[in-house]
Design brief:
Structural class of chain A: alpha+beta
Radius of gyration of chain A: 21 Å
Largest sheet of chain B: 13 strands, mixed
Structural class of chain B: mainly beta
CATH class of the largest domain in chain A: Alpha Beta
Strand order of the largest sheet of chain B: 3-1-4-6-7-8-9-10-11-12-15-14-13
Oligomer: heterodimer
Distance between the termini of chain B: 49 Å
Strand content of chain A: 35-45%
Order of helices and strands of chain B: EEHHHEEEEEEEEEEEHEE
CATH topology of the largest domain in chain A: Alpha-Beta Plaits
Order of helices and strands of chain A: EEEHHEEHEEHEEEEHEEEEEHEE
Helix content of chain A: 10-25%
Number of domains of chain A: 2
Strand content of chain B: 25-35%
Number of helices of chain B: 4
Shape of chain A: elongated
Largest interface: A-B, 21 and 20 residues
Number of strands of chain B: 15
Distance between the termini of chain A: 23 Å
Radius of gyration of chain B: 19 Å
Chain lengths: ~300, ~270
């Protein structure tokens, strides 16, 4: 336990530590389709292979589903958030993913959903696909492109907003007696965090099993396995795990704002604590780099229910 | 502060050019200076004081109490603030507007909104011919903004429209959207002959199938597009319409293929 001071809630041990997170650039869009199934399909495809900026260029996921009454075109949809470390990379990822995954999805349309400090191209970047048949429409303070496609028309707002207030890397480490309990705790946390607006969990199902540390023994490795939390290495490395812990899963959270990450971590903590140690995690910790790299520190003790 | 109000004393005996009576045009003028402004168009022109009783101090909000078909160029060049006319107006109301709002409670003559660039012009009554259109020798008509006619419009509504939205809610005459370049024209009610004739781009949105189209428009069939829902919502939110104009799956004609053929007429099916 590294001599770390600990708290206890409902039998779950809470490390007196903090999650260290970073400032990021982010944007949000709404994808709609004739049915929620197809809106989600476009969104899931667009946010595939977007778990970590380390290897994917961006981090992205569905923020929330939207009923038809809450979307610009009166069809069901979902809000998608995309995060990157820089504006140029964010624009590149947005354009490519929109063009390859949303434009191509049956019945889809795409709208801006973030008022930011600067515009990012959406339809402005894709309109040329219309080969001269694209139609520009400006009304209600918005600019749309209508691009003819084989099932009708791809309607896409010209730009969306960029925020520089986004935060990436909020996290919770859920330590459990076995894999099943760790996964149950993680699923509870994901379900709770999904209800928090403006926060996403970009990893598969919102869960990471391969938490990482910075660097590694091999040249060129930006990240390598978090050996301190790998139960099979307990005893051979400087482990952070006690004997009763045999599985660790991590929830990584990106938020539109600092407040969104705070709310998401609070929701996740509450859900795992309520589940209790017998069915879920026996201990909750968080990942950091000693506080030297990230501007945002989320202390678990401040977020407890 | 009370709106600057021009109360009509009697029906003017000549056509009036009211283009100077805008917030920007009157800024910094005293009551006396305003009263001495020439607004008549004859060799012995009438002054503001001859035609109107002027009251109020808020130059950003101007009201013409009483109207006349001889009130020409009301709100010409309006760039900000608000003008309201409680009666009819004559020619070229709101011409070259670039901002602000002009509300006409009565009807307007020809060339209302001609060359508008931005702002909102609303005519509660009818409008004459060449709504938003260019004057002789001009290349383009309206270039932006929102122009609403709650009544009927005459012929050639939206001629050479380049940008912006014209909405006509009780039908219009012949040649709506004549030689359109781009932009949008909404017409609820009966549309006269040859809508969209020689349009290059742009959209005509109708609440019924057009009857007398040029043969150079082609039937594109039924469209299943998200745009109609978004546009219908906009019209309702702006209180231009109280029910959807196009509905789901509007019909479409493409044209005018006599020119580039990239314009469209979208219309509500089943009417």
């Amino acid at each position: 336990m590294n001599g770390m001071h600990q708290l206890n809630r409902n039998g779950v041990v809470i490390d007196d530590t903090f999650a260290e997170a970073f400032g990021m650039r982010a944007t949000a869009i709404i994808i709609t389709a004739p049915t929620l199934k197809w809106a989600r399909q476009a969104a899931i495809t667009m946010t595939g292979y977007a778990t970590s900026v380390i290897g994917c260029g961006c981090e992205a996921a569905i923020d929330r589903d939207l009923p038809a009454s809450k979307t610009p075109d009166g069809r069901p949809g979902c809000r998608v958030m995309i995060f990157a470390m820089g504006t140029d990379e964010l624009q590149k990822q947005l354009k490519n993913r929109l063009g390859q995954c949303v434009l191509t999805s049956p019945g889809s349309a795409c709208f801006a959903d973030l008022e930011g400090t600067a515009p990012l191209d959406l339809g402005n970047a894709l309109r040329y696909f219309g080969d001269g048949w694209q139609i520009s429409k400006k009304f209600g303070g918005k600019h749309y492109w209508r691009v003819p496609v084989m099932d009708g028309e791809f309607l896409c707002e010209a730009t969306t907003g960029l925020t520089k207030l986004a935060v990436g890397g909020g996290n919770l480490l859920l330590l459990a007696a076995d894999n099943a309990k760790a996964l149950r705790a993680a699923e509870r946390a994901v379900a709770a965090i999904e209800k928090v607006p403006g926060a996403i969990m970009p990893f598969p199902g919102g869960v990471v099993r391969s938490g990482s540390k910075v660097g590694g023994k091999y040249k060129g490795m930006m990240a390598s396995t978090n050996d301190a939390f790998a139960p099979t290495l307990r005893g051979v490395v400087n482990s952070a795990l006690t004997p009763e812990v045999n599985a660790v899963l991590e929830i990584v959270i990106d938020g539109e704002t600092d407040d969104a990450v705070t709310a998401a971590m609070r929701a996740g903590l509450k859900a795992v604590i309520e589940l209790g140690p017998k069915r879920g995690a026996v201990r909750i910790s968080a990942g950091n780099y000693g506080g030297k790299l990230g501007k945002f520190h989320y202390h678990l003790k401040d977020l407890l229910p | 502060m009370k709106a600057l109000t021009f109360s009509l004393l009697a029906e003017p005996e000549e056509r009036l050019d009211l283009s100077a009576l805008t917030p920007a045009g009157l800024a910094g003028l005293t009551d006396v200076q305003i009263a001495k402004l020439r607004i008549g168009t004859t060799r012995d022109p009438a002054l503001v004081g001859d035609i109107f009783k002027v009251t109020g101090k808020d130059f950003q909000s101007i009201i013409f109490e009483g109207g006349s078909a001889r009130f020409d160029k009301v709100g010409t060049g309006l760039s900000g603030g608000a003008i309201r006319v409680t009666g009819n107006v004559g020619l070229e109301a709101g011409r070259k507007m670039s901002g602000g709002s002009l509300l006409i409670d009565g009807s307007a003559g020809d060339h209302a909104g001609s060359g508008m660039v931005d702002g909102r012009l609303e005519i509660k009554g009818n409008a004459g011919d060449y709504l938003g259109g260019p004057l002789a020798g001009e290349i383009t008509g309206m270039e932006g903004g929102l122009l609403i006619v709650r009544g009927k419009a005459g012929n050639y509504a939206g001629e050479r429209l380049r940008r912006g939205i014209i909405a006509i809610l009780k039908g219009c005459g012949d040649y709506a959207g004549y030689r359109m370049i781009a932009g949008s024209i909404v017409v609820a009610g009966r549309v006269g002959a040859m809508p969209g004739y020689l349009m290059k781009r742009g959209s005509l949105f109708l609440d019924r199938r057009p009857e007398n189209l040029a043969p150079t428009f082609v039937d594109c069939g039924e469209t299943d597009i998200a745009f109609s829902g978004v546009f219908d919502r906009f019209l309702i939110q702006e209180k231009i319409m109280d029910k959807p104009l196009l509905g789901a799956r509007p019909g479409k004609f493409g044209g005018d293929v006599a020119v580039s053929g990239k314009g469209e007429i979208l219309f509500r099916r089943g009417r």
